[in-house]
Design goal:
One of its GO terms (biological process) is heart contraction. One of its GO terms (cellular component) is nucleus. About 15% of the residues lie in helices and about 40% in strands. The protein has helices at about 60-75, 165-175, and strands spanning about 5-10, 15, 20-25, 35-40, 45-50, 80-85, 100-110, 120-130, 135-145, 175. The protein is globular and about 40 Å long.
Length: about 180
C-alpha cells in the first residue's frame, strides 16, 4: 500500500514521497523555494525546487540546462547526461505543465567541500510551467560510488534504498493544489 501524498510548500503541492524520508528542514535551514528529503539510512536525497523559468531554453533542452547548472553549483569534477526522455502528460497528475522531462546522468562531486569525490547518479524530473514563469525541478541524488575518505563513507546502503520506481511515483503523483504558490 502506498503512503498518502505528502503536502509540499505549505500544501500548495503534494506528492508521494518515498518511505524512510526525513524532512531536512527539521534539521537545518532550507531555502523557501526548496523542499529537501534525505533517506533515513542511506546517503540518497530528494530536492523539489521552484526555479525561474528560463524562457530562452527550449523544452527539450531544459533538463540538460538545469543538470549543467547543478553540476556548476556542485563544482562537479565531471558530469555526463545518460538519457533525456519526455514524460507523457497522460501519466502525470500535474496537468498544468506544458511539458515534463526526465534526465538521468552522473556527476563526480564532493560533499561539504571535501577533497574526496563521490560518483552520484542524478535523476531529474522537470515540469515546465511557463504560465507561472516557473520550472519545478525534482532531483533524486543516488550515490553510486563513495570515496573511502568521504564523510558519506559510513552511509548504510543496505537499508532498502529508494528506487527509480519510487522517484517515478513521486513525479507521477506531483499535484498542484494552489497556483498562488507561484505569485
Amino acid at each position: 500500500m502506498r503512503d498518502q501524498p505528502r503536502p509540499l510548500f505549505g500544501g500548495a503541492l503534494s506528492a508521494h514521497v518515498p518511505h524512510s524520508s526525513t524532512d531536512v528542514s527539521d534539521l537545518r535551514e532550507i531555502p523557501d523555494n526548496q523542499e529537501v528529503f534525505a533517506h533515513t539510512h542511506t546517503d540518497q536525497s530528494l530536492i523539489i525546487e521552484l526555479l525561474e523559468y528560463p524562457g530562452q531554453v527550449a523544452d527539450q533542452d531544459a533538463a540538460k540546462y538545469h543538470f549543467e547548472d547543478i553540476a556548476g553549483s556542485n563544482k562537479a569534477g565531471s558530469c555526463e547526461v545518460m538519457s533525456v526522455v519526455c514524460l507523457s502528460k497522460a501519466d502525470l497528475c500535474l496537468s498544468e505543465c506544458s511539458s515534463a522531462w526526465m534526465l538521468t546522468g552522473t556527476q563526480c562531486v564532493s560533499k561539504f567541500s571535501e577533497e574526496a569525490r563521490n560518483t552520484v547518479r542524478l535523476h531529474l524530473g522537470l515540469f515546465r510551467l511557463p504560465q507561472f514563469s516557473t520550472d519545478v525541478l525534482i532531483t533524486f541524488n543516488d550515490p553510486q560510488s563513495i570515496s573511502p575518505e568521504s564523510s558519506s563513507a559510513s552511509a548504510d546502503t543496505h537499508h532498502q534504498p529508494w528506487t527509480l520506481e519510487d522517484f517515478q511515483n513521486l513525479l507521477q503523483t506531483l499535484t498542484l493544489h494552489n497556483p498562488g504558490l507561484f505569485g
